[in-house]
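To assess whether the prediction recovers the assembly geometry, we first specified each molecular entity separately, as shown.
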Amino acid sequence: MLLPKFEYHEPKTVQEACRIVGELGEKAKVLSGGTDLLVNMKKKLIQPEHVVSLSKIEDLKGIFRENGQVKIGACATAGEIAGSEVIKDTLADVAEAASVLGSPLIRNLATIAGNMTSARPAADLPPSLMAYGAKAKLVKASGERSVDLNDFFTGVGKTVMTPDEILTEIAVEIPQEPYGDHYIKLGVRQALEISLVNVAALILLDGPEGPIKEARIVLGSVAPTPIRALSAETVLAGQVPSDVLFERAGEAAANDSKPIDDFRGSAEYRRDMVGVLTKRALKTALDRATSR
Amino acid sequence: MDTYSVIPIRFTLNGDKVSIEAGAHETALTVIRERLSLKGTKEGCGMGECGACTILVDGKSVNACLMAAPQLEGRTVMTVEGLGREGKLHPLQEAFLEHHGVQCGFCTPGLLMSAQSLILETPRPTHKQVVEAISGNLCRCTGYQQIVDAIQYGADKTGGEE
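The predicted structure of the complete assembly is given in tokenized form:
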């Protein structure tokens, strides 16, 4: 299957990449892993005149921990994230999400930057990163900004990024409190699946045996962007964890979701599953928080 | 084509250095299959769904249909043609024959490359690890059981050697 023709750019530095996208604007698309971009180009959904590849920029690779933060380079692949000891130690559910993205073949190509900038409602990596309040570093020729992923997605395939910006890094603050997380993806198949519902839960405890200080629940595939289940979070804040509490949080999360009917599943089923999966995700998150 | 630049690409393919000029709109798959005439790497869906085009890039299995040709620059690539030698099949290939892992054969090269990628990292994979490793490769004939058996048997025979 053929790609439409385009001019190819392969900058070696972020600075050079910013200059190129700054000059070309809407005419250029950024290629990181290519597993969404090239498919969309083959389907002729987009036909950019220019493609700017990030693969030769060494600064965008790697995953490391420094000063209480985990930093994930834009070109880190899903496979690298799933296998990273740093991620598994600190952000277990991000590794879980990366390990169920696409297929092994896709995971060896697909990057974290692509999974963010494609902004698909069912994307695997955003929910758990949003639960942690991860920040995207957006760089352009004249400066840079850091955007909380909770403010990053604006619609299906849409983000706050402007055409002259490049996403260079995702940074996550490691919580100070005892914490635990879990990510659950529900599909009808085990691989190459686009979720019916996905749920990420993060629990922060007030001391090792303490009540829940704060909980964050993020739902995917049930709205145009991944969304926080804010009323479920309110149900949990300050409370002593229990099955009954998690049941109530699940009900609240189901009410927070705004799913649609499509060929993958009905809105009613999706809403019910938000409740079930939220409860399950919270249970595992609590187990992880208390055993940390 | 005229107004679009042609890009020189150098990479290692099955142990040999390759130097070729390609248009950026070509994929790794078209370079390997059409330009270099290695027909083992198949085009199935062209969208990353079927795995018929699986190759190893720096030891990792990827969909060749989803790589722009210039992304091959400087990489080490292995296709199914690099797996055995003339007159001597790789243990994985022998295992596919012995365990009836091949019917029509269209998916076989891709499955072999996914299997090879797995045993490079995990020389003695469990049943579950095999199933996961080939989850990006579709086979419409066998029902997979024979393929999973073949990969486990082939991994044992390979015994961690490459």
